[in-house]
Write a structure and sequence with these properties.
Layout: E1 2-7, E2 10-13, E3 18-26, E4 33-39, E5 46-52, E6 58-60, E7 68-72, E8 78-83, E9 92-99, E10 112-115, E11 119-124
Parallel strand pairs: 2-11
Antiparallel strand pairs: 1-3, 3-8, 4-5, 4-9, 5-6, 7-8, 9-10, 9-11
């Protein structure tokens, strides 16, 4: 089992920055994918970014590329999402997620079995 808890959300003005943190605990043996997703009520959840823990390869949605960066602390106990040049359309509940043990296709959302409770990000214009 893997437990995830997000923090760092808040309200900022357009152009500002936030760093989200995801505290990771439990058994992460063979956890190959860590991702950030966001959701707005009434709309489908979308992937923002992910990182392959084995290869280090990263993915970013086109809407955040060049503005957001996913990274991690030693031993993968914390995963970060640095968000710069925030826009009102970035407003959402942001969730940290970890893949099921042995799952390697980090692009498939169904493979993420563990989710945090979320942290709200609101960007005003």
């Amino acid at each position: 089992q893997v437990q995830l808890v997000e923090s760092g959300g808040g309200s900022v003005q357009a152009g500002g920055s936030l760093r989200l943190s995801c505290a990771v605990s439990g058994n992460t043996y063979r956890t190959y994918c860590m991702g950030w997703f966001r959701h707005t009520p009434g709309k489908e959840r979308e992937e923002v970014a992910h990182i392959n823990t084995a290869s280090g390869a990263t993915y970013y949605a086109d809407s955040v590329k060049g503005r957001f960066t996913i990274s991690r602390a030693i031993a993968w106990k914390t995963v970060y999402l640095q968000m710069n040049s925030l826009k009102p359309e970035d407003t959402a509940m942001y969730y940290c997620a970890a893949s099921a043990a042995g799952f390697q296709d980090c692009y498939t959302q169904a493979g993420y079995n563990y989710w945090g409770p979320g942290t709200q990000v609101t960007v005003s214009s």
